[in-house]
């Protein structure tokens, strides 16, 4: 639960707990504080959080809030140190699309549009289907014993898809997955996240060098980026390509893993909805979209920073303050979704989630995440229609994370 914390101004504010006992209750408590509330993050870091749908949309589309951490007063005055566990998710280099605003951000979006295009994503369908079948074949051999679905399947399929998309050698898929696995979690040593980013940056630096040595020999996302040009614009620099590759995995892989797990978990906990799906009364698209609303793969996104004082209802976000978008709390918004927000209802027609973001920074990888989840989930339940949890749901634990909504393990029986 978001316990009140007394901070520098002797004001009690909710604590954004990376170790909540009850994630849904934690979100509800934050929603009740809203729509814009002061919060405290691990390490005593103070910020604001949007916890209602309308407030989040307004701030996500407001140019007075920017991604540049140089605008963050508490970092500039030394209140927040460089080894704060979440410093690694902030971008100081000026070449990461996630950390840009205005014209520089629009340029990056244009130059990366082709690799993210619907046509390019659709070309991945047969690859995703083949990769999924290969992993399902491997699971089939262990179908009568408990196994960790996350470790053996829902983590491996997306990292293999990313590997093929990027043109990474197959023998390096596991290495890439191992580099990213601990990136979003707080139970690491001070500075470890920055070390991980440095290792990942070096990995992609070497990958780009190999691709540049013979561009014509490759047809993949990496070479698409290296060839990216826009009319009247400079092409992407090598540094921009490297950081874009890093960012797409960081933002997209974990999201897809969590989305797959969360859909499976929702169906296993709501057999009546699973029965409706089997009977054709619901579509997989409806189930995926309601899961994105009910239990989104991302919990809270850090940060954007106010470039001037911004009045928001009864409060004012001061120039230099940090702002969190708390997607978990937004799922509880009655005005947007109705009074039954605690109900998993794939036939819900009221409201439209923003779990992939909103405004200029809406996730460009959303079409790939949806395509991948749709293929993986259909095939998983077609192969193992009686899939069950191997432990009571109350025993499932989340990773110690503020940003992502990620299970530590997901023990299941494929053929009970």
UniProtKB/TrEMBL annotation:
<protein>
    <recommendedName>
        <fullName>Cytochrome P450</fullName>
    </recommendedName>
</protein>
<dbReference type="InterPro" id="IPR002397">
    <property type="entry name" value="Cyt_P450_B"/>
</dbReference>
<dbReference type="InterPro" id="IPR036396">
    <property type="entry name" value="Cyt_P450_sf"/>
</dbReference>
<keyword id="KW-0503">Monooxygenase</keyword>
<dbReference type="Pfam" id="PF00067">
    <property type="entry name" value="p450"/>
</dbReference>
<dbReference type="GO" id="GO:0004497">
    <property type="term" value="F:monooxygenase activity"/>
</dbReference>
<comment type="similarity">
    <text>Belongs to the cytochrome P450 family.</text>
</comment>
<keyword id="KW-0349">Heme</keyword>
<keyword id="KW-0479">Metal-binding</keyword>
<dbReference type="InterPro" id="IPR017972">
    <property type="entry name" value="Cyt_P450_CS"/>
</dbReference>
<dbReference type="InterPro" id="IPR001128">
    <property type="entry name" value="Cyt_P450"/>
</dbReference>
<keyword id="KW-0560">Oxidoreductase</keyword>
<dbReference type="GO" id="GO:0020037">
    <property type="term" value="F:heme binding"/>
</dbReference>
<keyword id="KW-0408">Iron</keyword>
<dbReference type="GO" id="GO:0016705">
    <property type="term" value="F:oxidoreductase activity, acting on paired donors, with incorporation or reduction of molecular oxygen"/>
</dbReference>
<dbReference type="GO" id="GO:0005506">
    <property type="term" value="F:iron ion binding"/>
</dbReference>
């Amino acid at each position: 639960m978001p316990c009140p914390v007394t901070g520098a101004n002797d004001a009690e504010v909710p604590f954004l707990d990376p170790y909540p006992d009850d994630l849904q209750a934690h979100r509800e408590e934050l929603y009740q504080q809203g729509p814009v509330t002061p919060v405290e993050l691990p390490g005593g870091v103070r910020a604001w959080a949007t916890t209602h749908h309308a407030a989040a949309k307004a701030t996500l589309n407001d140019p007075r809030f920017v991604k540049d951490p140089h605008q963050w007063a508490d970092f500039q005055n030394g209140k927040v140190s460089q080894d704060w566990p979440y410093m690694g998710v902030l971008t100081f280099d000026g070449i990461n699309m996630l950390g840009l605003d205005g014209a520089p951000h629009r340029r990056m979006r244009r130059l990366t549009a082709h690799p993210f295009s619907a046509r390019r994503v659709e070309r991945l369908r047969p690859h995703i289907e083949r990769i999924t079948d290969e992993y399902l074949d491997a699971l089939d051999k262990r179908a009568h014993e408990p196994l960790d679905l996350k470790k053996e399947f829902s983590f491996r399929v997306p990292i293999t898809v990313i590997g093929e998309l990027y043109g990474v050698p197959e023998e390096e898929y596991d290495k890439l997955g191992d580099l990213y696995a601990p990136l979003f979690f707080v139970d690491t040593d001070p500075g470890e996240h920055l070390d991980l980013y440095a290792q990942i940056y070096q990995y992609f630096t070497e990958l780009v060098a190999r691709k540049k040595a013979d561009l014509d020999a490759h047809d993949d996302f990496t070479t698409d980026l290296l060839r990216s040009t826009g009319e009247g614009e400079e092409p992407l620099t090598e540094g921009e390509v490297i950081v874009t590759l890093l960012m797409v995995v960081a933002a997209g892989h974990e999201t897809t893993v969590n989305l797959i797990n969360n859909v499976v978990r929702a169906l296993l906990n709501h057999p009546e909805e699973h029965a409706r799906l089997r009977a054709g009364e619901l579509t997989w698209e409806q189930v995926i979209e309601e899961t994105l609303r009910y239990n989104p793969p991302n919990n809270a996104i850090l940060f954007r920073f106010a470039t001037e004082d911004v009045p928001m209802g009864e409060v004012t976000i001061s120039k230099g303050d940090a702002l969190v978008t708390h997607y978990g709390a937004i799922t509880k918004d009655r005005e947007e979704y109705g009074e039954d927000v605690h109900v998993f209802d794939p036939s819900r027609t009221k409201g439209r989630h923003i779990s992939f973001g909103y405004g200029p920074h809406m996730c460009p990888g959303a079409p790939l995440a949806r395509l991948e989840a749709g293929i993986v989930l259909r095939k998983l339940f077609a192969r193992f229609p009686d899939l069950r949890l191997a432990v009571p749901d109350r025993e499932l634990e989340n990773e110690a994370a503020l940003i992502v909504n990620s299970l530590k393990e997901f023990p299941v029986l494929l053929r009970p």
